Amino acid sequence: MSLKIRLARAGSKKRPYYHIVVADVRSPRDGRFIEKIGAWNPTLPKDAERVTLDADRIAHWLGHGAQPTDRVLRFLDQAGLAKRPARSNPEKAVPGKKAQERVALAKQAEEDAAAKAAEAAQAPAEAEAPAAEAASE
To answer: Where is the composition biased (Low complexity) (predicted)?
Structure first.
């Protein structure tokens, strides 16, 4: 039997409250669980006691092979009960395909405008040069 330490939603509409439970992976999110080992109240301010954990029972279930979900692992890491490995996703900040195309088009338009401006600056200078030569003759 595979075990997960995960969140089970409680509370009413627009007022979330979560129980931290040990459950079989096949049971539904808010369904049957084996044991309640903590709680999380996200509506409280961040400096308040938002997370409560039963450290002994968590250590017991981790010893029996229960795998915490990512959110629960964050709580356990903050409490010093488990180590959450640092994640590195350098591609997360890269813009999407369409955004990259828009940036390329804008850059191309800017280069075209700069080239036209350079040509416009060259054209009057060339037009004045033959006039100056004609006047000197």
So the answer is: 115-137
Q: Each residue of 78-126: pLDDT tens digit?
A: 998 888 888 888 888 888 999 999 999 999 999 999 998 888 888 766 6
Name which of 83, 70, 85, 80 is nearest 7 in CA terms: 70
pTM: 0.64
- The residue ranges of every structural domain in the chain are 3-79, 89-131
For residue 119, give Cα distances in angstroms to 59, 110, 126, 137.
Answer: 74, 14, 10, 28
Options 3.40.630.30, 3.40.50.620, 3.40.50.300, 3.30.1320.10; CATH of 3-79: 3.30.1320.10
Residue type at position 74 = R
